[in-house]
Amino acid sequence: MPEFFNQLREDAQQMFLAGIAAADPGAAVKKHLRFEKGHIEIIEQSENQYITHRTQSRRIHVIAVGKAACQMAAAARQIIPDDNFVQPGMVISNYENAQQLDDFEVYGANHPLPDEAGLQAARKVADRIKQAEPNDLILLLLSGGGSALLPLPLPGISLEQKIAVTDLLLACGADINEINCVRKHLSQLKGGGLTKMAAPTPVYSLILSDVIGDDLSAIASGPTVADNTQFDDAIDILNKYQIWQKLPDSVKAILQSGQAGRIEETPNQNDPVFKTAKSALIGSNPISRQAVENKAEQLGYQVITYSNQLSGEARLTAEQLAEWLKQQAPHLDAKTAIIAGGETTVTLQGKGKGGRNQETALAFLLAAEQLGLEKNWLLLSGGTDGRDGPTDAAGGIVDPYSIEKIENPAALLNNNDAYHALLQADSLLKTGATGTNVADLLILLLHPTTENPLSQPGKINV
After folding, report:
1. Model confidence at 341, in pLDDT bands (50, 70, 90)?
2. Are 364 and 340 in contact (CB under 8 A)?
3. What DSSP element (H or E) covers 231?
4. How far apart, in Å, are the Cα atoms of 10 and each of 15, 21, 92, 378?
5. Percent of the chain at pLDDT exceeding 70
6. So what's the pLDDT on residue 92?
7. Residue 457, pLDDT score
8. Which CATH superfamily hosts domain 25-152+187-229+266-283?
9. Residue of 263, 258, 179, 189 whose CA lies nearest to 222
10. What confidence tens digit (pLDDT) does each residue in 350-382 have?
């Protein structure tokens, strides 16, 4: 294998880490949260302008939920004075990221499937919300993973039944918006439920986005924002993926009762509970993708933005990227970084182990071999949270020579066993839990095939 692959690998990892650093939860909170002259302020950025929302509250209840919850909570505590901070604050994070914090009760819970610890923590959050007084403020610090980490099913649905539904949704190929639509209509807190439960106490939210398009109603299933979906939509999604008949009877009964109007809909934008609710987006995949591109330019690469909303089936997305590269390769004779951000999905057909980023890496590797791509590329696909699916890897990092080390890679891909395929090739990307989550980043690097590499880096959009 040519020596330049070592440099490509090092460069790709530097770019990926730059993307993670740009989503630092603590720094984002400090940029968007202030306490001045007795008022708590959140600063929202909208169309390159900053909007400040401020209120005077006697007491502030800090509740942080998600993979970045600990860092967000610690940053907020530094800003809020003792006289206004209601101790203890509450933090619910996944087990890998949960850590003890002064002045907070910290609860670890499972992700991506909820567990009993998450249920008990959600009940404590609900109790705290109900105890808040009208002139208090609930400050919610929300990040990716909140849907699974804060499970509080509607009466009549058990945690086990909620897990069964989540499992079916994760395996069928539904995208995150579809999954969250169903979750909202089975939950007491999601889909604006937390704001409704808190009313008339105002709720301010600082939100770190892990979804494509940064729809606040989709992040952690939107516990503090209006929901524009209905029970009809949830049922349509379940029928679309042919899993309605697989649902527990109690879940079907709840959804049908909601469809018939016997259960109240999730609150929409016209609901008065949102008059005192304010939200600010403080970090997102586009921000991290831009940091990756900036780092690539610093390292001397010509940058091509392949996609800022990468989505769809991971395997197909990888194959399309390989075909695109086959067409573009004759025109790319410079040191080039092809960057994408987003979140793909995997429809489980086999019984293997892996995640969407690992599947992307393995599928690209196979497609590149089949298409006969020139051996001058390296691909990294990784989740910014450091955990791709139910594995200890953030994703995969492969080059044309990785395939030589994998026994029967096509069979492993068909069994959704990308983890063990990449393990054979020493191609698993491992960062450990990062404490943040802004979806996925894909980095495809090309080494020049001519004697005249680009002298000045620049950007190209496709």
Report:
1. very high
2. no
3. helix 231-240
4. 9, 16, 34, 11
5. 97
6. 98
7. 54
8. Glycerate kinase, MOFRL-like N-terminal domain (3.40.50.10180)
9. 189
10. 999 999 999 999 999 999 999 999 999 999 999
Contact 425, 378 (CB under 8 A): no
The mean per-residue pLDDT over the stretch 41-57 comes to 84
Residue 212: per-residue pLDDT? 83
Count of CA atoms in the C-beta half-sphere (13 A) of 115: 11
pTM, whole model, 2 decimals?
0.81
User: Which helix (H) or strand (E) element contains residue 154?
Assistant: none
The string of DSSP letters for 382-408 reads: EETTS--SSSS-SEEEE-TTGGGGSSS
Backbone phi, psi, residue 105, to 5°: -90, 120
Handedness of CA 227, 232, 238, 244 (dihedral sign): positive
Give the whole-angstrom CA distance, residue 331 versus residue 227.
46
Q: Which of 278, 145, 291, 264 is nearest to 205 (CA)?
A: 278
Question: In the predicted model, is pLDDT for residue 400 greater than 90?
Answer: yes
* Nearest C-alpha neighbor of 274 from the set 226, 342, 232: 226
Q: Which of the following CATH numbers is that of domain 4-18+286-449: 3.40.1480.10, 3.30.300.30, 3.30.420.40, 3.40.50.150?
A: 3.40.1480.10
pLDDT of the residue at 112: 83
HEC string for 19-75:
HHHCCCHHHHHHHHEEEECCEEEEEEEECCEEEEEEEECCCEEEEEECCCHHHHHHH
pLDDT at 458 over 70: no
